[in-house]
C-alpha cells in the first residue's frame, strides 16, 4: 500500500498521529506540504507565522528523509485549488490512501471535506486524525448535549473524563524501506509542479531567518521545540506563582512550536504529568496551573469547531455587534506602534513588534486597552496580532480577543476593564519589563515609571483611563 501524508500545522516527526498511522499501514510513504499564500493572507496569517512554518518544514524534511519518506512541496494560491491538485497528485503518485491531522477553522474544514469528496472518485480514502487537541472537538458535551461555552465547566468535565495519563505520545513512525520509487518531481496543472525543494520565501511573504536560522531570536523546528520543553521541565513548579510577571519570563515559550505542531500537546502533557506523579490536580500547583493553560488552548479549539461564526469574525455574543466601535486610525496606530503614553501598553506592543511574541498577561492588558479604553473594534487588534505573532492561531487569538472585548464566551461581565496602571504596578513592580522595551523611560524610578510625568521624547497618555472605562461600561450596559 502506498500512502501520502499531507502535513499542515503538525510539523514534526515524533508523536504525529497521521504520520504514525500512515507509516504503520503503508509499505511506501511520501509526505506533501501545500502552500496557499492567497488564502493565508485572507486569513491574516502574517509573515512571522508563515516563515516559522517554512523553517520548521525544512528541518522536518531532513528527519523524514532519514525515515525514507520524501517530502514534496506544492505552491498553490488558494484552498479552492487543493482538491483538484491532490486528485492529480494521487493519480500520478499512484497512492492508495491520504492521511492528515484534522484542522478546525471553517475554511480548513470545507477544504478538507472537498478533498475527501474529490478523492472518493479515485477510490482513495482520506483519513483525518485527532492530533491538535487531546480530545476530538465535540467529544465533551454539557448535560443538555451542547458544546461547552464556558471554560470552567469544560475544564471540570475534561478532567473528570481524562484525569489520568490517557495521552501518552506515540512511538516513532516506522522507517520505510527505501524511497527509490517515488519520482523526483511531477507536473501539476494549474499550479507549480510538485517538487522536493522548499523555497526560501513565498509570494507575498518575505521574512527570512537570520544567519543563525532564527526568527526574531527564536530557533524554529522540532528539535528546538523539544529543547524548550525540556528546559521548562525544570521551571514548571514555579509556574503558578510566577507566570503573571512578564519580567520574570516564567512561562514555557512553547506557543510558536505548539501552534505549527513542532511540539505536540501530548508531549507537553506527558512532561507535566511526570512532574506531578500523574495528577492533573492536587499534585503540584505549577503543573495543574500549566495544564489548565493547555486546556484553554483545547477549549478554544473545540469552540472554533463548534461555532462556525467564530471563524467568520463574528462576535460570540451577537448583541455585542451593536457596540459603536471607534474607527480612529490614529489612535490604533499609536496603540500598535507602542506610542500610547501608557508605559506597560507601549512596552508590551514593542515586545510584540520586536520578538513576535507577547506575554499572556500583557496580551490581556493591551487587548483591554484597545477594546475598552479606546473602544476600537476587537477585530482590528485580532488582525494585528495574527499578522505579527509567531504563535498566531485563529482559535486562541480569537478566543483571547473576544474574552478581552467581552464579546466572547467569558463568564466575567463586561464591566471588568483592566486598569493598565494597576496591572503595571502589580505585575511589573520595579518597572524592569518597561525599562527593557521603553528605553526612553529607563532612568525613571519604580514609582514614576508606571505613569511618568511629561517627558521629552515620550507621549502623554492618549486617553484618560478612568473616563474611558466609564464610557465603555455605559456603552456595554446600553446593549442590554
Ligand atoms: P504558557 O503560559 O507556557 O502556556 C502553555 C501553552 O498553553 C501555550 O504555549 C499555549 O499553547 C497554551 N495557552 C496558554 N494560555 C492560553 C490561552 N489563554 N488561550 C489559549 N491557549 C493558551 N495563544 C496562541 O497560541 N496563539 C495566539 O494567537 C494567541 N493570541 C492571544 C490573544 C490574546 C488577546 C490573548 C489574551 C491571549 C492569546 N493567546 C494566544 C494565549 C496566550 O497568551 C499564549 O498562548 C501564551 O502567552 C503563550 O506563551 P507560552 O507558550 O509561554 O505560554
TrEMBL record:
<dbReference type="InterPro" id="IPR006050">
    <property type="entry name" value="DNA_photolyase_N"/>
</dbReference>
<feature type="domain" description="Photolyase/cryptochrome alpha/beta">
    <location>
        <begin position="1"/>
        <end position="134"/>
    </location>
</feature>
<keyword id="KW-0456">Lyase</keyword>
<dbReference type="InterPro" id="IPR005101">
    <property type="entry name" value="Cryptochr/Photolyase_FAD-bd"/>
</dbReference>
<dbReference type="Pfam" id="PF03441">
    <property type="entry name" value="FAD_binding_7"/>
</dbReference>
<dbReference type="InterPro" id="IPR036155">
    <property type="entry name" value="Crypto/Photolyase_N_sf"/>
</dbReference>
<protein>
    <submittedName>
        <fullName>Cryptochrome/photolyase family protein</fullName>
        <ecNumber>4.1.99.3</ecNumber>
    </submittedName>
</protein>
<keyword id="KW-0285">Flavoprotein</keyword>
<dbReference type="Pfam" id="PF00875">
    <property type="entry name" value="DNA_photolyase"/>
</dbReference>
<comment type="similarity">
    <text>Belongs to the DNA photolyase class-1 family.</text>
</comment>
<dbReference type="InterPro" id="IPR002081">
    <property type="entry name" value="Cryptochrome/DNA_photolyase_1"/>
</dbReference>
<comment type="similarity">
    <text>Belongs to the DNA photolyase family.</text>
</comment>
<keyword id="KW-0157">Chromophore</keyword>
<dbReference type="InterPro" id="IPR036134">
    <property type="entry name" value="Crypto/Photolyase_FAD-like_sf"/>
</dbReference>
<dbReference type="InterPro" id="IPR014729">
    <property type="entry name" value="Rossmann-like_a/b/a_fold"/>
</dbReference>
<keyword id="KW-0274">FAD</keyword>
<dbReference type="InterPro" id="IPR018394">
    <property type="entry name" value="DNA_photolyase_1_CS_C"/>
</dbReference>
<dbReference type="GO" id="GO:0003904">
    <property type="term" value="F:deoxyribodipyrimidine photo-lyase activity"/>
</dbReference>
Amino acid at each position: 500500500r502506498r500512502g501520502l501524508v499531507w502535513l499542515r500545522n503538525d510539523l514534526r516527526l515524533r508523536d504525529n498521529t497521521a504520520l504514525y498511522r500512515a507509516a504503520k499501514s503503508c509499505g511506501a510513504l511520501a509526505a506533501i506540504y501545500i502552500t496557499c499564500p492567497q488564502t493565508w493572507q485572507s486569513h491574516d496569517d502574517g509573515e512571522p507565522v508563515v516563515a516559522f512554518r517554512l523553517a520548521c518544514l525544512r528541518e522536518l524534511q531532513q528527519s523524514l528523509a532519514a525515515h525514507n519518506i520524501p517530502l514534496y512541496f506544492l505552491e498553490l494560491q488558494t484552498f479552492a485549488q487543493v482538491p483538484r491538485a491532490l486528485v492529480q497528485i494521487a493519480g500520478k503518485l499512484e497512492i492508495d490512501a491520504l492521511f492528515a491531522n484534522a484542522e478546525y477553522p471553517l475554511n480548513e474544514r470545507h477544504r478538507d471535506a472537498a478533498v475527501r469528496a474529490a478523492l472518493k472518485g479515485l477510490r482513495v480514502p482520506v483519513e483525518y486524525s485527532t492530533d491538535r487537541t487531546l480530545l476530538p472537538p465535540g467529544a465533551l458535551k454539557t448535560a443538555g448535549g451542547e458544546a461547552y461555552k464556558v471554560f470552567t465547566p469544560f475544564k471540570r468535565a475534561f478532567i473528570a473524563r481524562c484525569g489520568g495519563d490517557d495521552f501518552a505520545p506515540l512511538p516513532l513512525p516506522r522507517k520505510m524501506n527505501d524511497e527509490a520509487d517515488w519520482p523526483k518531481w511531477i507536473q501539476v496543472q494549474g499550479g507549480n509542479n510538485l517538487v522536493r525543494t522548499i523555497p526560501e520565501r513565498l509570494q507575498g511573504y518575505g521574512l527570512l531567518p537570520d544567519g543563525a536560522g532564527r526568527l526574531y531570536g527564536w530557533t524554529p523546528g522540532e528539535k528546538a521545540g523539544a529543547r524548550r520543553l525540556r528546559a521548562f521541565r525544570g521551571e514548571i513548579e514555579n509556574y503558578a506563582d510566577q507566570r503573571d510577571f512578564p519580567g520574570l519570563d516564567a512561562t514555557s515559550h512553547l506557543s510558536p512550536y505548539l501552534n505549527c505542531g513542532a511540539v505536540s500537546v501530548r508531549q507537553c502533557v506527558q512532561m507535566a504529568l511526570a512532574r506531578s506523579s500523574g495528577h492533573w490536580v492536587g499534585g503540584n500547583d505549577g503543573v495543574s496551573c500549566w495544564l489548565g493553560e493547555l486546556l484553554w488552548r483545547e477549549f478554544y479549539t473545540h469552540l472554533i469547531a463548534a461555532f462556525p461564526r467564530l471563524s467568520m469574525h463574528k462576535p460570540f455574543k451577537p448583541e455585542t455587534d451593536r457596540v459603536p466601535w471607534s474607527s480612529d486610525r490614529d489612535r490604533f496606530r499609536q496603540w500598535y506602534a507602542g506610542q500610547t503614553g501608557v508605559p506597560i501598553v507601549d512596552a508590551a506592543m514593542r515586545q510584540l513588534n520586536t520578538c513576535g511574541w507577547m506575554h499572556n498577561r500583557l496580551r490581556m492588558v493591551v487587548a483591554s486597552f484597545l477594546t475598552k479604553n479606546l473602544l476600537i473594534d476587537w477585530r482590528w487588534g485580532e488582525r494585528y496580532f495574527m499578522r505579527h505573532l509567531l504563535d498566531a492561531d485563529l482559535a486562541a487569538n480569537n478566543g483571547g480577543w473576544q474574552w478581552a472585548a467581552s464579546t466572547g464566551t467569558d463568564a466575567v461581565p463586561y464591566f471588568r476593564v483592566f486598569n493598565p496602571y494597576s496591572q503595571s504596578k502589580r505585575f511589573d513592580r520595579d518597572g524592569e519589563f518597561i525599562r527593557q522595551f521603553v528605553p526612553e523611560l529607563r532612568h525613571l524610578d519604580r514609582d514614576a515609571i508606571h505613569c511618568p510625568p511629561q517627558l521629552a521624547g515620550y507621549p502623554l497618555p492618549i486617553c484618560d483611563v478612568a473616563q474611558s472605562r466609564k464610557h465603555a461600561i455605559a456603552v456595554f450596559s446600553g446593549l442590554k
